[in-house]
Amino acid sequence: MRNRNGSLGGEASDDQEESMACRGATNSGELLSDATYELPFTHKFSGKAREDHYAQQRGDWPFPDVDTVDYQKFLTHRDAARHGRMLANIPASYTFLEGNYSIQFVGGLYYSTIDVGTPSVPFLVALDTGSDLFWLPCECQSCAPTSSPIYEDYGITNALNVYSPTDSNTSKTIACASDECHLYINQCDANGGGECLYKVNYASVNTSTSGRLVEDVIHLIPNDGEPTPTTVPIVLGCGQMQTGSFIDGYGAPDGLIGLGFQNYSVPALLANSGLVKDSFSMCFGPDFSGRVVFGDIGSATQTSTPFLRVQPGSYDTYFVGVEAIDVGTDSITVGEPALFDTGTTYSYLNSSTYQQLLTSFDKQNTDYTRIPVGSEEIQPWELCYLTTDAIIKTPSIDYVLNGKVPFSVKFPFVPLIYQNRTRAGFCLAIFESNANIIGVNFMVGLNLIFNREERTLGFEETDCSSLQANSGAGPAPESGGPVTGPKAPTPSPSRRPPPSSNTTPGPGASPAPSGASNIAAFSLATGLALAIVHILL
């Protein structure tokens, strides 16, 4: 049995103790379905992990410095592993299969602590919008180790837990003949055991989880000052057998919460219980920590675009339509879907669109000297420029989503920083692929609303760190925190300018000159912070 203390680094801080369960907000007198429940998350390569590593005198940090090209290369390898088939020269449709087995994207980039069972046991689980099943290591035949030097490098100093159905008073076996089994994965025990078995294959090579489905409870703590946790029944996988990335320490060693579109994902199960609306939000701060809020439908001021069906009659994952990409004064017709994926670091475009974007951007970006393609110092990037300026002004980049919805990219660059810590320039952080993926580097500073009930993606610029700081026990804040229903805009200097302007100054940057509507001003100091964020992935 694993040590039940899954805190990060020695004694748990107040923030860590708060993260041991979901937190939410509801107004007195409202229906329970109008509540929201928040789950703070942190990246496993976060600055906190690095601080803990040095505080425990474990020697040098085992990864490249966060603001170097070497670490950016490391991140692209992680993206490639996550989307192994999608980012290869294989049609994207190969990532989905009909039948008992489902192909899903591998998770493991973000984690949070959630309490399961009675008595409650904490688990440090990965969060993934690209998959659906909630599973925990359980009755292990092949699981990740309970402790590892790799975890210690992430700042996880205490042993992780293994879920034990027999130790939980609220655990129930799901029978093969039950409605729940057929509603979810629908794979029965061929040996006649009567248990509802499951297996999920992920896109990462040889990566899967398998075991049996059980019912138990998770514990959510409201944000309205009520100290008593809310107990919610939920279906989860008792993960007896993990393979690939799930056992090498780089995937989800203590389980995974699927946030995908299927009816057995955690958001769907919470909504079906009547606890919250069938919607959730994710917000990423500049250090890639943040929170996921179950039941959040966003604000009246947010912009929205519809999700697309991948196959006729079904919504498999969070695809949106991209009509065009505006680059400065040029408009590039796209007319294809793009995946909003919170588990991918960078953003990707199909070959034709990618080449058009690079050509258009380079043609208009005349104030900086381009570094020759193939130069070793800029790999893996293709479009890089020399400058020592802290503030750069380049052609703006705006996605036009279905319905003529603008999605402005505020920070499309990574700074080019060499090992001697000198600023050399900047690179466009987009890669060529056979699929269009909007990664987290285009989502920083946004509150993303995955409204599954309305089948829409909402977004607006938000001070995610303030939202995170305002979460926790006690009354809901007047502004800046999750509230029920449409909420007033958060007072924040980072809020999006009116749609008539494409000027997007980064923090500390001066606005672009009046009339320069197709020029965006970017702070490379902000870009540096974003590069650190990227490296934490």
From TrEMBL:
Stored SUPFAM superfamilies: Acid proteases (SSF50630)
Pfam families attached to this UniProt entry: TAXi_C, TAXi_N
Gene Ontology MF annotations: aspartic-type endopeptidase activity
UniProt-annotated stretches for the region Disordered: 1-25, 461-515
A GO BP entry: proteolysis
Key words, A-Z: Aspartyl protease, Hydrolase, Protease
Coiled-coil ranges (or none): none
Membership in a protein family: Belongs to the peptidase A1 family.
Domain Peptidase A1: 110-460
Organism: Marchantia polymorpha subsp. ruderalis
Catalytic residues in the record: 128, 341
Biased composition (Low complexity): 471-481, 501-515
Signal peptide from the UniProt entry: none
Protein name: Peptidase A1 domain-containing protein
Composition skew (Pro residues), residue ranges: 488-500
